[in-house]
Amino acid sequence: MTNGISSGTVEVQCSDLTGLALDWAVAKAVGKKLETHGGRSYVPGHCGDSWSTGQYVSSLTRWSPSNDWSQAGPLISKYLMDFTVEHPETIGAALCDENGIYIDDRMMFGKTHLIAACRAIIAAHLGEVVSVPAELVENKSPE
Predict the structure, then answer these.
(1) What's the confidence (pLDDT) of residue 108?
(2) Does a structural domain hold residue 54?
(3) With b meaning 16 or more CB within 10 Å and e meaning fewer, what string describes 102-138?
(4) DSSP symbol at 63
(5) What is the largest CA-CA distance in the chain?
(6) What parts of the chain have a pLDDT lower than 50?
(7) Each residue of 39-51: pLDDT tens digit?
(8) CB under 8 Å to 51, separation ≥6 — which residues?
(9) Quick one: pLDDT at residue 3?
(10) Does residue 46 fall inside a structural domain?
């Protein structure tokens, strides 16, 4: 398995990241190693011998914290996220310290809590402009 990502990158405003590019940038921000297959990103899981074939296999879980609460939830807890609802499709998220104070006075926005949280994590760790593999931006999925 290869990482499947070419070396061509484009710079994208964190507030404009969506779909595959958003998920990829979250992985980069939190230090996750990803594998890509068929234009999707996966987190390697348990590796070992398959009981049925005797071959060495890697268990993969699709990485999509921008729309999967089971992946974003632990990140929201880890980074002590604070949310605000501006109106039904504008959710704001910011990272806080243990006292509930915004870490960098930066709130990021999205159509959902998960998108806003992902953007806040990226902005705090990578900045407001991120270099993303071009093919992920070109193949982005809708918010």
Answers:
(1) 95
(2) no
(3) eeeeebbbbeebbbbbbbbbbbbbbeeebebbbbbbe
(4) -
(5) 54
(6) 1-5, 46-52, 56, 140-143
(7) 667 776 544 444 4
(8) none
(9) 45
(10) no
